[in-house]
Specification:
This protein is of the alpha/beta class. It contains 17 helices and 28 strands. The structure holds alpha-D-galactopyranose.
């Protein structure tokens, strides 16, 4: 059987090395000059200079304005703005405009759009909409891409190809006839023969035995649950089909402009996406991410840091680019809250602190028409005499002062947190014991507890764990081959591993590993779980340690581990809730309960003490800290999320103000200080 899908991001495409896309850190945003009269362009470029913008994403949705009829191209406006931007010292990340097919194409070929699981075809009037499995769409898209590359490939403003836009955002999971054909080909390539598929998915259940690949439908609406193996493979297929479109565009671009780097904007934020970005990251010359905070989440900065650490993991620790975020409100949440004073800079710099070599916004100028008319921008509806424009301009000055950090990397962490899209896909593929637990629930909580303690953590896919002293494995549901050995090796060399409930439960085909949970890690942990006990919303189960369990518990028997905490109430009273197996100086801890915040914090303190892990610096609560290092320097980011001054123990020179500190740094309420540390 051929393995067509993995999520290990180890062998990143590191052969192609390009000059960075801007002088200093990249700063700017999506620019849609086509929405404005040309007089406004002159003002735009003037304001860009004032704000310190050096990089824009151009042409993202402009296909219908460039190819005005089938095969009829009109480049005039794009020629003029490319020249104008170049003259103004602004570099261009030129988008292939395939994220919005033109109306003439949609009218002539309605079959290029996606179809949902109920058979509804996506109609005209939105964006993306195209089916990555449509050969007709592919032909038109690649013709456009080639024409664009041939026209602008030598333009001096061009720094980066920005392929399409958020591929998969509004066009993931198509159930069309085209998708069905490609899915069947994909399955045949993966399994080789139909009996291998039958065996992997366990199709004896409900007598689903297939006798040929053309009987295997995409999981269209069927009133009952589909086979979990089929659902998981459909997730993989979806990611591969979308990636296939990126690769096809990349091939054209590389053929025309081999020396221009190529990327596409990922959506690493919030919940797991439909694209397996760990795998996609190997195919881009620069990992670029879009990130938007949830205004209603009081701890949104924690999710931001988690996402930024994930992106760094995908880029193998190399600098990456924050290619979109917002200056203030978005327009797609229920209540679109404006960012508070200083939040814009804290958000941007938190990404930079965690490895981004630039911060671009969606968007330069707020649209007056169109479905995003209330989305924030660098230049809001009110114009440049506005709080947001002033804050962006200040940020531009800050980023210019931070130019020396470009190319530095986040200092290596001693803690790894394992995260894997395959586990997310497997967990959401099929009916589960708890239908409301999302895959990111526990990883995000662990990340928050570590970050609050100012401890650096690498968020990485399962694979080589060589340099880590503490490895946290939260709800890593699917056991990728080799992860058990890699974890055992950590413990054997004296390191420490924490595995939580719902880890190592299924194999790569989403089949339960039988013989007691957690099948893949029972021996490592010295435990054996015979039954899950998910809890209803109003149930709280105390532990004898003082912690409490919410949402999840399970019946554990120790087989070589000691019990650290027991359930002190409920059905499982007296049974182990947290256990530890000791091997020489290494340990393997098992967490069988979804703990309250304080309980999880106590566990994290215990693990950090066990592994002897210190914070990046000693700092007060409310400060977010991160260190980037180069061969010759070390830079400390101190981001104050509190509304009073906070202090950290550090020495060095403030890269922005030039102030020097010897021992203690006071960071004003809501401010950010970046120090070049004394050596
Ligand atoms: C995404 C898209 C942008 C825009 C923003 C709005 O990031 O890439 O085109 O729609 O969302 O938040």
């Amino acid at each position: 059987m051929q393995e067509t899908f993995t999520s290990v991001s180890a062998d990143l495409n590191s052969q192609r090395v390009f000059p960075w896309i801007s002088d200093g850190l990249a700063f700017g945003g999506d620019y849609s000059p086509e929405q404005w009269p040309e007089e406004t362009w002159l003002e735009d470029v003037e304001l860009m200079r004032r704000a310190g913008v050096n990089s824009v994403n151009l042409g993202v949705f402009s296909w219908g304005l460039l190819e005005v009829a089938d095969g009829v191209f009109e480049w005039g406006w794009l020629d003029r703005i490319m020249d104008l931007l170049h003259a103004g010292g602004v570099g261009v990340n030129l988008a292939t405009p395939t994220a919005a097919p033109p109306m003439w194409l949609l009218a002539a070929h309605p079959e290029i759009t996606t179809v949902d699981e109920f058979g509804h075809r996506t109609q005209r009037g939105g964006r993306l909409a195209w089916d990555p499995s449509s050969p007709v769409f592919r032909t038109y898209a690649l013709r456009m891409v080639r024409a664009l590359a041939e026209r602008y490939g030598q333009h001096p403003a061009l720094r980066l190809w920005h392929v399409s836009n958020e591929i998969g955002n509004e066009n993931a999971r198509s159930y069309s006839p085209d998708a069905e054909r490609e899915w069947q080909v994909w399955l045949e390539r993966r399994f080789g023969d139909i009996e291998a598929l039958n065996s992997a998915w366990g199709t004896t259940f409900w007598g689903h035995h297939y006798t040929s690949f053309d009987q295997v439908m995409p999981p269209r609406h069927a009133r009952t649950g589909h086979n979990p193996g089929l659902l998981l493979d459909f997730e993989r297929f979806t990611s591969d089909a979308l990636l296939g479109h990126y690769l096809a565009e990349r091939e054209v671009l590389r053929g025309v402009t081999p020396d221009i780097p190529i990327t596409t904007n990922f959506m690493v934020m919030g919940s797991p996406s439909t694209a397996d970005y760990g795998r996609w990251a190997r195919e881009v010359d620069l990992v670029a991410n879009d990130h938007y905070t949830q205004g209603a989440d009081p701890e949104r900065e924690g999710e931001l840091s988690f996402s930024a650490d994930r992106v760094r993991g995908m880029s193998g620790g190399r600098p990456w680019l924050l290619i979109e975020h917002s200056t203030s409100a978005v327009n797609w949440q229920t209540i679109n809250r404006a960012k508070s004073r200083g939040e814009l800079a804290r958000n941007s710099l938190a990404h930079v602190a965690r490895g981004a070599d630039g911060a671009l916004f969606f968007q330069w100028r707020a649209s007056t028409a169109g479905s995003e008319q209330y989305h924030s921008a660098i230049v809001p509806h009110a114009g440049a005499d506005s709080r947001v424009f002033r804050e962006v301009t200040e940020l531009g000055a800050t980023l210019r002062a931070l130019a020396p950090i470009r190319g530095s990397r986040v200092a290596p962490a001693r803690v790894a947190l394992l995260l894997d899209e395959a586990s997310a896909y497997a967990w959401r593929s099929g009916r589960k014991p708890h239908g409301e637990l999302g895959y990111f629930d526990l990883p995000l909580k662990f990340h928050r507890e570590l970050t609050r303690r100012h401890v650096a953590v690498d968020v990485i896919a399962p694979g080589e764990l060589g340099g880590y002293d503490l490895v946290i494995v939260p709800t890593l549901y699917l056991a990728t081959p080799g992860t058990d050995e890699a974890l055992a090796a950590v413990v054997e060399r004296g390191g420490h591993v924490l595995v939580s409930y719902l880890s190592g439960i299924v194999d790569p085909h989403n089949r339960v590993i039988s013989g007691g949970y957690p099948g893949a890690y029972r021996d490592l942990l010295g435990v054996w779980v015979d039954e899950h006990y998910p809890l209803f919303d109003d149930e709280v189960v105390p532990l004898d340690s003082g912690a409490s369990a919410h949402g999840w518990t399970e019946r554990v028997a120790v087989r070589g581990a000691e019990t650290l905490a027991r359930f002190a109430g409920g059905e499982l009273v007296g049974e182990p809730a947290i256990t530890r197996r000791t091997v020489g100086s290494g340990t393997a801890t098992y967490l069988a309960a979804r703990l309250d915040r304080a309980g999880l914090g106590t566990l994290v303190d215990d693990l950090l003490a066990l592994a002897g892990i210190e914070p990046v610096v000693v700092a007060e609560a409310g400060l977010e800290v991160s260190r980037r290092v180069s061969d010759s320097a070390s830079y400390l980011f101190l981001i104050n999320h509190a509304d009073v001054e906070r202090t950290a123990h550090a020495s060095g020179t403030d890269l922005v103000s030039g102030a020097t500190y010897d021992g203690v740094v006071g960071v004003p309420a809501g401010a950010v200080v970046v120090l070049e540390e004394s050596r």
